[in-house]
Amino acid sequence: MATLGIFGALAFYLITLSLIINCIKSYKTNRKENALLFAAALALIVFTVILQVNQGYLRLYHWMFFGLMDGGCAYAARKNLFNGRKDD
User: Fold this and answer.
1) Over the stretch 37-74, which tens digit does the pLDDT of each residue have?
2) SS in 3 state form for 43-60?
């Protein structure tokens, strides 16, 4: 909170929480194909706690991990959306 302030810290935790929730929802829709997203959600929790202890949650690789998880969730949602169509 020293670097971002209260609103920045809340926004950071909301982004983290929304990514974790999206990954868990993707996992619940198709457990076999989205197991890696579920593992990434668990890893993000541990990763965030570790970086909070070290006061380094603004590291570039943490934000890159956010992007990879967001892309994976978007891909899983898109794939799930088009799985029900007959004309693919």
Assistant:
1) 888 888 888 888 887 777 665 677 788 888 888 898 88
2) HHHHHHHHHHHCCCCCCH
User: CA quadruple 33, 35, 41, 44: dihedral positive or negative?
Assistant: negative
Cβ neighbours, 10 Å, residue 13: 13
User: What's the CA gap between 75 and 83, in Å, rounded?
Assistant: 12
d(CA 45, CA 57): 12
Q: Which residue has the tokens 């169509």?
A: 85
Q: What is the DSSP-derived secondary structure letter of residue 86?
A: S
Beta-carbon contacts of 51 under 8 Å, excluding residues fewer than 6 positions away, are: 57, 59, 62
